[in-house]
Every structure is written in C-alpha cells, then in structure tokens.
Amino acid sequence: MKKLMILLLATVLLSGCASIIGSNQKLISLKTNPEDAKVLIWDESGMVVFKGNTPTQITLKSGTAYFNGYDYVVLFTKEGFPNRNVTISSTVSGWYFGNIIFGGLIGMLIIDPLTGAMWTLGPKEIIIDFTQPIKEEKTLPQK
C-alpha cells in the first residue's frame, strides 16, 4: 500500500494537472442549416487541416510548442448562400491552474506547456444557419 501511495504521489508531482485531466486534442462539432455545406479549416500558419462537408466532427490540436496555443479559421460555403467564417480560438484551460495544487512548477512551467494540454479550444460546437441573414458589425460614426 505504501508503494502504491508513493507511486501515485510521484505520478501527480511529475506531471501537469491539465495533462492528467485534459488533452491537447479537442473535438469540435460543425453543423449547418441546410446540411451538406462545404467546410475548410486552416490553422494560423495557413495550412489546410481539414476539408469536408457538414455535419461533421473534427479533432484539432489546441496547442503545440512551448506556451503556444493554436487558432483556426473555419470557412463554410453553400451554393446559393454567402460564405460564412468562424474563428476557433485557444484559451488557457482551467485545469492548467490545478498545477498550483497538484502539478507544481514542473507541471505549470514544463509539462503542460510542452504537451499543449494547457490550452483548450472554443467554441466546441459551431452551428451556421445559412437561412438567417448575416449580422452586420456595428461601426461607430465617423467624425
């Protein structure tokens, strides 16, 4: 029993909290009305990471490299409708702050940042309704 407790403690201390609880892979759901819209996703470096049709689900990396979260642009196209695009952004995972209690400095400064587990992606579900008009951005009047 004592060996098990030591092994468990060593595992917690030598890993990051977000790496234990989470992952650097996030499942994103893509839906449209009407269905069967074309979807193109590219990452922040401009590389196309997915081509397909809706409805679909795709797993994207939330972060790679040291302290570098990933962002993506999703382009939806459907014949007869204006194109729509959405940004999927990385934000710091709440589990990353669990390192204050469980993972310590090793988890906070090394493991979670290196594995990309310190990041999460959002939104987790994107629903595009082509039948609804595009909301125009409000701009301030020019002086």
Q: What report would you give on this structure?
A:
- The structure is a single chain.
- Residues 4-21 and 137-141 have low confidence and may be disordered.
- The longest helix is centred in the N-terminal third of the chain and has 12 residues, at 2-13.
- This protein has a five-stranded antiparallel sheet with strand order 3-2-5-6-7, with no helix packed on it. A three-stranded mixed sheet has the order 4-1-8, with no helix packed on it.
- 20% of the residues lie in helices and 36% in strands.
- It has helices at 2-13, 17-21, 104-115; strands at 25-33, 38-43, 48-53, 56-61, 72-77, 84-92, 119-122, 125-129.
- The chain has a single domain (12-129), classed as Sandwich (Immunoglobulin-like).
CATH class: Mainly Beta
Q: For the largest sheet, list the strands in their spatial order.
A: 3-2-5-6-7
Might you state the CATH topology name?
Answer: Immunoglobulin-like
Helix percentage range: 10-25%
Short description:
The protein has helices at residues 2-13, 17-21, 104-115; strands spanning 25-33, 38-43, 48-53, 56-61, 72-77, 84-92, 119-122, 125-129.
What key attributes describe this structure?
single chain; alpha+beta; 5-stranded antiparallel β-sheet; 3 helices
Q: What is the element layout, followed by pairings?
A:
Layout: H1 2-13, H2 17-21, E1 25-33, E2 38-43, E3 48-53, E4 56-61, E5 72-77, E6 84-92, H3 104-115, E7 119-122, E8 125-129
Parallel strand pairs: 1-8
Antiparallel strand pairs: 1-4, 2-3, 2-5, 5-6, 6-7
